[in-house]
Design a protein that fits this description.
There is one protein chain. This protein has 169 residues and is an alpha+beta fold. Helices cover 46% and strands 18% of the residues. The chain has a 4-stranded antiparallel beta sheet. Pfam families: Nitroreductase. GO terms for molecular function: oxidoreductase activity.
Length: 169
């Protein structure tokens, strides 16, 4: 199969696959490294490479899940708080083999939308590489990400714009 056909097939078969569909099988370190490395090939104006990606696995992933659940509990008012949603946060994290936090570093050299667009392109590269390696994934943007700055050690010019869940299917 020629390269163009392979690429077309990967693009057309890329889907968001959610943690409930992940198996318990571990993603090989080499495959995870390849998925993350593909993000670095996204274009960025003035080569700012604004994406800041942090992988959470094992105990760190559990701590992230606990933090997300805690944020939900603290920020939901009593009328909108749902025990099921609270429990689902931890379940979704535990069913994932890895979670990557997607953050943007705003350089001040280019408009912010360009930094966000470049970061989104880096995530698309991860999506396509995960698809090629038969790894399920999806990008989630729960409101809790707006409260992760301290937990993630983000600087004033940085912002978390999502969580990238990964798991074998």
């Amino acid at each position: 199969m020629e390269k163009a056909e392979v690429l077309k097939n990967i693009i057309e078969t890329r889907r968001s696959i959610f943690p409930k569909s992940y198996s318990t099988e571990e993603i090989d370190e080499e495959v995870l490294a390849e998925i993350l490395n593909s993000a670095t090939f996204a274009p960025s104006h003035k080569r700012t490479k604004p994406w800041r990606l942090k992988v959470f696995r094992g105990e760190e992933k559990n701590q992230l899940g606990a933090k997300l659940a805690e944020i939900y509990k603290q920020t939901a008012n009593s009328e909108t708080f749902l025990e099921k949603k609270y429990l689902d946060i931890s379940d979704k994290v535990s069913m994932s083999n890895a979670i990557v936090t997607i953050c943007v570093n705003f350089s001040g050299l280019v408009p912010e939308w360009e930094e966000i667009a470049a970061t989104a392109m880096s995530v698309q590269n991860m999506y396509l590489t995960a698809t090629a390696n038969e790894v399920g994934c999806y990008w989630s943007t729960p409101g809790m990400i707006n409260h992760l700055n301290n937990f993630l050690g983000l600087e004033e010019n940085q912002k978390c714009i999502g969580l990238f869940y990964l798991g074998k299917v």
